[in-house]
């Protein structure tokens, strides 16, 4: 069975990363961290970080088998991420300290995935 399979009884534990929007179970975020954002979110083994940097409230699901070749991945700003299941919209905002850390230390611009901000063309 696929590594991304989630049994119906476990779907209530799904969460989406507020930075990259990958959807995984709480336990998987705890055990593995975010495969795209672990470098700066440090979710692995940290329930507090998981609660503040992921959300249970998200809309739509996209399954990406090859993000580098997918037009949907480019449209959703997911190209360059690992293959997996992603939300189209994630409700919530990162805490200010995490946001500042991402933008200052890692020189990455945080664009909320809840539709509150749009990317400048």
Helix/strand layout:
Blueprint: E1 14-17, E2 23-25, H1 26-32, H2 38-41, H3 47-53, E3 54-55, E4 58-64, H4 71-75, E5 84-90, H5 96-105
Antiparallel strand pairs: 1-2, 1-3, 4-5
Question: Would you write up a description of this structure?
Answer:
This protein is 27% helix and 19% strand. With 121 residues, the protein is of the alpha+beta class. The protein has a single domain (10-115), classed as 2-Layer Sandwich (Herpes Virus-1), CATH 3.30.40. It has helices at residues 26-32, 38-41, 47-53, 71-75, 96-105, and strands at residues 14-17, 23-25, 54-55, 58-64, 84-90. One of its GO terms (molecular function) is RNA polymerase II complex binding.
Jot down its keywords.
121 residues, alpha+beta, Herpes Virus-1, 3-stranded antiparallel β-sheet, 27% helix, 19% strand, globular, centromere, nucleus, Transcription elongation factor SPT4
């Amino acid at each position: 069975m696929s590594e991304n399979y989630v049994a119906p009884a476990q779907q209530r534990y799904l969460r989406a990363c507020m930075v990259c929007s990958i959807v995984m179970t709480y336990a998987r975020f705890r055990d593995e961290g975010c495969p795209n954002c672990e470098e700066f979110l440090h979710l692995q083994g940290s329930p507090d970080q998981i609660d503040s940097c992921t959300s249970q409230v998200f809309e739509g699901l996209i399954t990406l088998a090859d993000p580098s070749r997918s037009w949907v991945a480019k449209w959703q700003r997911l190209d360059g991420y690992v293959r997996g299941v992603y939300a189209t919209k994630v409700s919530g905002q990162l805490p200010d300290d995490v946001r500042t850390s991402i933008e200052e230390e890692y020189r990455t611009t945080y664009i909320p995935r809840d539709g509150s901000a749009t990317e400048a063309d």
